[in-house]
Amino acid sequence: MELAKINAHYQVTIPKAVRQKAKVKKGSYVKVEYRDGAIVVRPVTVTEEVEGLKALRQAAEKKFTEVWKDEDDAAWESYL
Protein backbone atom coordinates (compact mmCIF):
# COMPACT_ATOMS: atom_id res chain seq x y z
CA MET A 1 0.00 0.00 0.00
CA GLU A 2 1.27 3.44 -0.93
CA LEU A 3 0.81 6.59 1.13
CA ALA A 4 -0.15 9.92 -0.44
CA LYS A 5 -0.73 13.31 1.17
CA ILE A 6 -3.45 15.81 0.29
CA ASN A 7 -1.87 19.22 -0.38
CA ALA A 8 -3.23 22.70 0.38
CA HIS A 9 -5.26 22.64 -2.87
CA TYR A 10 -6.82 19.24 -1.99
CA GLN A 11 -4.74 17.54 -4.68
CA VAL A 12 -3.13 14.13 -4.37
CA THR A 13 -0.16 12.82 -6.33
CA ILE A 14 -0.71 9.20 -7.29
CA PRO A 15 2.48 7.30 -6.41
CA LYS A 16 4.54 6.10 -9.38
CA ALA A 17 4.09 2.39 -8.64
CA VAL A 18 0.30 2.81 -8.56
CA ARG A 19 0.29 4.92 -11.76
CA GLN A 20 2.29 2.25 -13.54
CA LYS A 21 0.01 -0.59 -12.40
CA ALA A 22 -3.10 1.39 -13.36
CA LYS A 23 -1.49 2.48 -16.66
CA VAL A 24 -2.39 6.13 -16.13
CA LYS A 25 -0.28 9.01 -17.28
CA LYS A 26 -0.45 12.77 -17.55
CA GLY A 27 -3.75 13.71 -19.17
CA SER A 28 -5.51 10.45 -18.26
CA TYR A 29 -9.00 10.63 -16.80
CA VAL A 30 -10.04 9.08 -13.51
CA LYS A 31 -13.43 8.72 -11.87
CA VAL A 32 -13.53 9.71 -8.20
CA GLU A 33 -16.33 8.60 -5.92
CA TYR A 34 -17.05 8.08 -2.26
CA ARG A 35 -18.15 4.52 -1.58
CA ASP A 36 -18.58 2.67 1.71
CA GLY A 37 -16.43 5.12 3.67
CA ALA A 38 -13.59 5.18 1.13
CA ILE A 39 -12.48 7.50 -1.66
CA VAL A 40 -12.25 5.37 -4.79
CA VAL A 41 -10.21 6.55 -7.78
CA ARG A 42 -10.35 4.47 -10.94
CA PRO A 43 -9.05 5.09 -14.43
CA VAL A 44 -11.64 5.57 -17.17
CA THR A 45 -11.50 6.06 -20.88
CA VAL A 46 -13.15 9.08 -22.42
CA THR A 47 -15.35 6.63 -24.35
CA GLU A 48 -16.91 5.40 -21.07
CA GLU A 49 -17.71 8.95 -20.03
CA VAL A 50 -19.13 9.82 -23.46
CA GLU A 51 -21.44 6.78 -23.27
CA GLY A 52 -22.69 7.99 -19.89
CA LEU A 53 -23.32 11.46 -21.30
CA LYS A 54 -25.15 9.94 -24.28
CA ALA A 55 -27.59 8.24 -21.93
CA LEU A 56 -28.21 11.54 -20.12
CA ARG A 57 -28.76 13.35 -23.42
CA GLN A 58 -31.23 10.71 -24.62
CA ALA A 59 -33.19 10.93 -21.37
CA ALA A 60 -33.28 14.74 -21.63
CA GLU A 61 -34.45 14.59 -25.26
CA LYS A 62 -37.21 12.14 -24.33
CA LYS A 63 -38.42 14.37 -21.50
CA PHE A 64 -38.25 17.46 -23.72
CA THR A 65 -40.32 15.70 -26.39
CA GLU A 66 -42.92 14.63 -23.82
CA VAL A 67 -43.25 18.17 -22.49
CA TRP A 68 -43.59 19.76 -25.93
CA LYS A 69 -46.13 17.22 -27.26
CA ASP A 70 -48.86 18.99 -25.34
CA GLU A 71 -51.47 20.12 -27.88
CA ASP A 72 -51.82 23.47 -26.12
CA ASP A 73 -48.25 24.19 -27.19
CA ALA A 74 -48.88 23.49 -30.88
CA ALA A 75 -48.00 27.09 -31.68
CA TRP A 76 -44.39 26.35 -30.75
CA GLU A 77 -44.04 23.61 -33.40
CA SER A 78 -43.23 26.19 -36.06
CA TYR A 79 -40.11 27.08 -34.06
CA LEU A 80 -38.85 23.48 -33.72
Describe this protein's structure:
By secondary structure, the protein is α+β, with helices and mostly antiparallel strands. The chain contains 2 helices and 2 strands, in the order αββα. The chain has a two-stranded antiparallel sheet. The longest helix has 23 residues, at 46-68. The termini are far apart. The model has no long low-confidence stretch (mean pLDDT 85).
Give keywords.
80 residues, alpha+beta, 2 helices, elongated
Helix and strand arrangement:
Layout: H1 16-22, E1 29-35, E2 38-44, H2 46-68
Antiparallel strand pairs: 1-2
Spatial gap, N to C terminus? 57 Å
**What gross morphology would you assign?**
elongated
What proportion of the residues form beta strands (DSSP E)? Answer: 15-25%
| Biggest sheet layout | 2 strands, antiparallel
Strand order across the largest sheet: 1-2
Radius of gyration: 21 Å
Give me the count of strands.
2
- What's the overall average pLDDT, rounded? 85
User: Count the helices. How many?
Assistant: 2
In N-to-C order, the SSE pattern is HEEH
* Poorly predicted regions: none
* Secondary structural class: alpha+beta
> What fraction, in percent, of the residue positions are helical?
25-40%
